Amino acid sequence: MCQQSVPLDAPSAPPIDAPSPLALPLSATGQQFLILILIFGAIAPTLLWPEFTGGMENVSVATALETARDGHWLVPTLHGQPRVKKPPIAHWLGALGILSSQSLAWGVRWPTLVCACIFLLSVYHLAGIIGGRQIALASALICGSNFLFLRYARQASYDIPLAMWVGIANVFLAKAVFQQQWWGGCIGAAVAIGLAILTKGPIALIQTAIPFALCYLFYRDHQPSSSLSLCGREGVRVSSNTKRLHAPLLPILVALALLLAIALPWYLYLLAKVPGVWDAWLGEATMRNEIATERRAPWYHYLQFIPMMAPWTVWLVVGLIALLVDNPYRHNRRIRLALVLVVVPIFIMSFFWVKRNRYLLPMLAPASILAAWGLMVHLPGWLRSKATDRVLVSVHWVFVLGMVIGLAVAGSLGRGTLTTADGRPWYSPSAAVAFAVPGVLLIIFSAILYRRWAGSLVAGTTLVMLLLQIVFMWGYSLSPDARSEGRILAQRILAVHPDARIYSYHPLGKDGPLEMPIYLNRAITRVDSPSGITPAGQEPQVILVAVRQTLPVPPPNSRYVADATIGGTRWYAYELLRLPNP
């Protein structure tokens, strides 16, 4: 007969006789240090390998570079103009990193990786509150070893810092709701949400406050039984104790005032000082430019989130199914919060015109908790040798094994885009064998050990994924996609005139390529006509002219310097010759 009774919404709602998914003899502090050492140590060496090749990273890096160089801290600039479409915190982090290092790539990227590691610590603490210490470490390692996280944790952009603040805010909100730490929880959440809004705008509210508010509104009047007794998946006994959630008003009002005090001043300052800023924000909120230039993404686009959780997809699905249909678990309101933190933001964001995978990064935290929960739900059946649970484990290991062997084979054969800049395969046959064999042996060893130590599935898979990302980034750094098309053009310009003033002209009125201000380390001024610049004085001047179909017409009194194709557009650089003194 089952004797132990645990609260319905308590962290120990998984079967009480199930071992921890990652049972290590470490304290909570030791586990958090393990997370930092593994993730930072595995990703940090790869930060220098790719060049700046495009996307939002180039926007962020170019803005951070101008901030550090020109001192435009309060209102960061891009091409010498106020960068008002995004708040400043990500630019400040990048600028501080640039000032800390002689290497631009390392300096601008290491703050993002630190933010990513802090985000994982927030996953650890959130999982501990809503799922218990049994799944805390597993949740953090699952979050730090999936495809989506490993793709963006190395890029200097807005989304990882946003995920960090969102993760911290959700930890404090969970403390307030489930541990009744209303003052500390509300104040901490207010600070984190305010900083999140200063990182990427009000989108943070739908990833933090709104899901928690919906949960509170539901549980305020709904009185679930407060305790149940579990023996595996069989014996279930519900007690008659009931408990309502009551949120005190005063700490919430104080927290709201603090949030506004942190988030609003910068926006109010720009409204007062920068002309046209409201229109720019309105265009950003409505995605006016994207609507004009991009097709609307389908409503189901964000369902890609599930496969992008690879190699943990199977356990995410198991956790979702158990939470929705398995009676002993589906009444656990703490774990259901993880589901709400995934579903509600994705549902709201699905109504926007443009949908990008990096927008999903903050939802990795609750999704990883659900995946770790799925692993916990699976364990009792595995320990009793149930066929379904053996199949789940087999599917997981086969998938991870396929990733290792697939990368080794495709990279050594040069399949698809897995070729270097000179057309050779990413890896020689010996190099492919050198990383594939240890990866396969690690998988086999972990699979055998799993029968005795449940944590080997999480530990082994995490180590394999961290190895794979190093090997992948090594090959990717040799490919044309990781090589900046503008870097060589910038070097040629600097060889002619290292202190030249740079202009750009595009027939459609676009700015110059962002790789150029990064590698030239100066702002580029856009002009309406290549002939509208008059060479004068002693200052060297160079203009970049975009050519779409026909050959360029050189500006008057100019001399050709170099040209390159950047982002599909051919750019020609001309030195403007100084006019003789009259």
Structure, explained:
This protein is of the alpha+beta class and 582 residues long. The protein has 3 domains: 341 residues, no CATH class; 73 residues, no CATH class; 92 residues. Helix content is 56%, strand content 8%. It has 22 helices and 10 strands. It has a 5-stranded mixed β-sheet. The chain has a 3-stranded antiparallel β-sheet with strand order 1-4-5, with no helix packed on it. Helix 5 packs parallel to helix 20. The longest helix has 27 residues. The N terminus is likely disordered.
Tell me the Rg in angstroms: 27 Å
Tell me the structural class.
alpha+beta
Order of the strands making up the biggest sheet: 7-6-8-10-9
Instruction: Summarize the main sheet.
Output: 5 strands, mixed
Q: Say how many strands there are.
A: 10
Number of domains: 3
% residues in beta strands: 5-15%
Residue-averaged pLDDT: 85
Q: Which blocks of ≥5 consecutive residues have pLDDT under 50?
A: 1-19, 222-242
Question: Between the first and last Cα atoms, what is the distance in angstroms?
Answer: 105 Å
How many helices does DSSP assign?
22
Global morphology: globular
Summary of the model, kept short:
This protein is α+β, with helices and mostly antiparallel strands. The protein is 56% helix and 8% strand.
Descriptive labels:
22 helices; 5-stranded mixed sheet; single chain; disordered N terminus; 3-stranded antiparallel sheet; alpha+beta; 582 residues
List the topology elements.
Blueprint: E1 5-7, H1 28-43, H2 55-70, E2 77-78, E3 81-82, H3 89-99, H4 104-130, H5 133-144, H6 147-152, H7 159-179, H8 182-200, H9 209-221, E4 227-231, E5 235-238, H10 249-273, H11 277-286, H12 288-293, H13 305-308, H14 313-325, H15 327-330, H16 333-349, H17 364-383, H18 387-413, H19 429-449, H20 455-476, H21 485-496, E6 501-505, H22 515-520, E7 524-526, E8 541-547, E9 558-566, E10 569-576
Parallel strand pairs: 6-7, 6-8
Antiparallel strand pairs: 1-4, 2-3, 4-5, 8-10, 9-10
